[in-house]
Design a protein that fits this description.
With 323 residues, this protein is α/β, with parallel strands linked by helices. The protein has helices at residues 27-36, 41-52, 58-66, 69-76, 132-144, 161-168, 178-186, 191-205, 210-224, 229-237, 239-242, 250-257, 260-276, 282-297, 307-317, 319-322, and strands spanning 83-98, 101-113, 119-127, 149-155, 173-176. A five-stranded mixed beta sheet has the order 3-2-1-4-5, with helices on both faces.
Length: 323
C-alpha cells in the first residue's frame, strides 16, 4: 500500500524541475546542442524523453531553436578584421523544401585565417547558381563589414570568382586548389590509366620553381595529350592561379595550395546537414550551421600548423598591407 504525505511546510524540493519553474534547467541549451549536431525535432523529442522522462512538444523545440534567428542575423553582419592573410572559399550542397518541391542549394563558406593564425568562419551564403555577380555581392558584403584586404584567396574553380576578386580585392593573389585540379583531371581517366597518370601529374605541383613545374607539365602533355588532351589544356588555362603557391616556402605551401582546411570544416557541416535530410526552408539551414559554427569555434584556439613561418614571410612580402 502506498502512503501519501502532505508537505504543509513546503520543504519538498523537486530534483528535476525546481519549484516555480516551468522548464527543466539547461533544457534550452541541451536542445540547441542536439539541434547543432543535426538531430531532427522528433529525434530531439525522443532524446529529451529518454534523458529526463519529460514530454516536450515539437513546437516548443522549434520555438527554442527559433530563438537563435536574431543571433544568426547579428553574426552574419558582425564586423570583421581589416586584413586576413588567407581566406578559403568552398561550398557544399543541402536539400531544401521550396515551392512544394525539394531542391538542391549550394551553401558557400568563407573561412578566414587571421593574423594570429586562428580560423574563423567569416560568412555563409546560399544560392542555386553562382557567377561573377553572385561573388561580387558576397565579397562586397565582406568589405562593407570591415575586411579591406585579403592577401591570398584560395578557392576551387568557382564560376566568376576570379573576376569578382579582381573587382573587389584587386591586390589579392588568387590560388586555385591543386587538389581540386587533380580531381578534375582524373574525372574522365580510365581506371587502368589513373595510377600512372596521377604519378605523372605529381612532378608539376611538387616542383621547386615555376620553370620546373612548366617543364613537368610539358612532359606530361607530350605523353598524355593523345589520350586525354583536355587535362594539360586545363592546367595551362589556369596556370597563373594554380602556381601562386610556388612563391612561398615549402613549410606553408600545403596551407596555400589546397582547400583541405575548409573542406574539414565543410565535412562537419555535411555530417550535420545529412542527418537533417531535407530542410523546411533556408532559415532552418542557417540556424543549424550557426549552431554548428558555435560548437566548432570553441576548439579553434591555436594557430594553424606552421603559422609562425607563414606570417614571418607575409610580414616581409606584404609589409605595407598587413601591419
Amino acid at each position: 500500500m502506498t502512503t501519501l504525505y502532505r508537505d504543509r511546510s513546503s520543504t519538498f524540493e523537486p530534483v528535476l524541475l525546481p519549484k516555480r519553474q516551468r522548464r527543466i534547467p539547461g533544457l534550452d541549451d541541451k536542445i540547441l546542442s542536439l539541434y547543432a549536431k543535426g538531430m531532427s525535432l522528433s529525434d530531439i523529442q525522443i532524446q529529451i524523453q529518454e534523458l529526463y522522462g519529460a514530454e516536450v512538444s515539437e513546437s516548443l523545440i522549434s520555438n527554442i531553436t527559433d530563438s537563435v534567428i536574431e543571433d544568426v542575423k547579428i553574426w552574419q553582419n558582425r564586423p570583421l578584421e581589416s586584413v586576413y592573410p588567407i581566406v578559403f572559399f568552398d561550398c557544399f550542397v543541402v536539400k531544401v523544401r521550396q515551392d512544394k518541391r525539394i531542391i538542391n542549394k549550394s551553401v558557400y563558406v568563407a573561412l578566414g585565417i587571421d593574423r594570429l593564425g586562428i580560423k574563423d568562419v567569416l560568412g555563409l551564403w546560399m544560392s542555386e547558381n553562382e557567377g561573377a555577380k553572385f561573388w561580387l555581392g558576397n565579397l562586397t558584403e565582406l568589405k562593407n563589414r570591415g575586411m579591406q584586404d585579403i592577401l591570398i584567396a584560395c578557392t576551387d574553380n568557382l564560376s566568376g570568382m576570379s573576376e569578382a576578386i579582381a573587382g573587389v580585392y584587386p591586390k589579392t593573389e588568387h590560388q586555385l586548389c591543386i587538389v581540386h585540379q587533380i580531381r578534375n583531371s582524373l574525372q574522365y581517366v580510365s581506371y587502368k590509366d589513373r595510377k600512372s597518370l596521377s604519378s605523372d601529374l605529381k612532378p608539376i605541383y611538387t616542383s621547386v620553381t615555376e620553370e620546373e613545374a612548366l617543364m613537368a607539365l610539358e612532359t606530361f602533355s607530350n605523353k598524355w595529350d593523345k589520350h586525354y588532351p583536355q587535362i594539360a589544356k586545363s592546367w595551362y588555362a589556369n596556370w597563373n592561379n594554380l602556381m601562386v603557391f610556388l612563391q612561398y616556402p615549402n613549410a606553408i605551401r600545403r596551407v596555400i595550395y589546397t582547400t583541405n582546411i575548409i573542406e574539414s570544416v565543410n565535412s562537419q557541416f555535411r555530417r550535420v546537414t545529412k542527418n537533417k535530410r531535407v530542410f523546411p526552408n533556408d532559415i532552418a539551414v542557417f540556424k543549424t550551421l550557426y549552431l554548428t559554427i558555435n560548437y566548432m569555434t570553441k576548439k579553434w584556439t591555436m594557430p594553424i600548423h606552421n603559422w609562425s613561418e607563414a606570417i614571418a614571410h607575409f610580414l616581409i612580402k606584404f609589409e605595407k598591407r598587413i601591419q
